[in-house]
Design a protein that fits this description.
This protein is mostly helical. It has helices spanning 2-12, 15-36, 48-51, 55-67, 82-89, 93-126, 137-161, 165-176, 180-185, 195-200, 215-239. The protein has eleven helices and no strands. Keywords: Membrane, Transmembrane, Transmembrane helix.
């Protein structure tokens, strides 16, 4: 527990993590209010679809939790890196990464639940045609799981690169500008089983995809991707010098 607490304190000390928290909680609610003013019916995914952009905050948290370990500190701090101190304090690299994963999971879950509450409430209040009740709680759990697994994927990619620039750029562009995964579905239906598209079935019901994937199946597929990427990241992290 002390190790997890230490990782949570590290996250709390990162300015980027607080920016991510703002993106995760405010951005979806703002999108929900703007969408509610349109005259277009959004169907069964009203509110939940607006939560998708908030995953950018989860991505940032997942990336900076790892990349911050490799940043070179200022001259007044000796010009070293946090990873050296971390591995000196924790002999087991497996325990170190597990504690970091738990810290990321807890943090992202908290913001996912908070964002869901704010966004879905804003959707209900601003659009009288939308009714959201207790029957939608499984979909809130789906949003939370999607955010957590996306953050863990981002952490896994960052473990391999040891830099936040590449995974952060790719993940954010893929989620907000041009979805490479979606473009690939035009070439092959197997692209629907890429983690971001498969995971969306956890909370969205009106997806225009070339493959019919059940929510549980989508979650399992995305979970498998997390296991594979995390396994690669751990293997690379264990075998190379800090």
């Amino acid at each position: 527990m002390k190790l997890i607490h230490a990782e949570l304190l590290k996250l709390a000390s990162l300015p980027a993590a607080w920016i991510a928290a703002g993106l995760a909680t405010i951005l979806p609610a703002g999108v929900a209010v703007l969408n509610s003013r349109s005259q277009v019916s959004r169907g069964p995914d009203a509110g939940f679809q607006d939560l998708a952009p908030g995953v950018i905050g989860a991505i940032v948290i997942g990336v900076v939790a790892v990349s911050s370990e490799y940043l070179v500190e200022g001259a007044e701090s000796g010009g070293g890196r946090q990873i050296t101190t971390s591995l000196t304090a924790v002999a087991s690299r497996a325990r170190f990464l597990l504690a970091k994963a738990v810290a990321v999971t807890v943090t992202v879950a908290l913001f996912a639940l908070l964002s869901s509450a704010i966004t879905l409430t804003a959707t209900s209040l601003s659009d009288a045609t939308v009714s959201i009740g207790t029957s939608d709680l499984p979909r809130v759990a789906g949003v939370t799981a999607y955010w957590i697994m996306t953050a863990l994927l981002a952490s896994g990619f960052t473990l391999v690169t040891r830099s936040g620039i590449v995974p952060l750029t790719f993940c954010i562009v893929n989620m907000s500008v041009v979805s490479v995964s979606f473009l690939l579905t035009k070439l092959t239906s197997w692209a629907n089983y890429l983690p971001d598209l498969a995971g969306m079935h956890l909370f969205l019901r009106d997806l225009d995809r070339s493959a019919d994937i059940a929510p549980l199946t989508g979650g399992l597929v995305m979970g498998l991707w997390v296991v594979v990427v995390a396994g690669i990241g751990f293997t690379v992290f264990r075998r190379r010098d800090a």
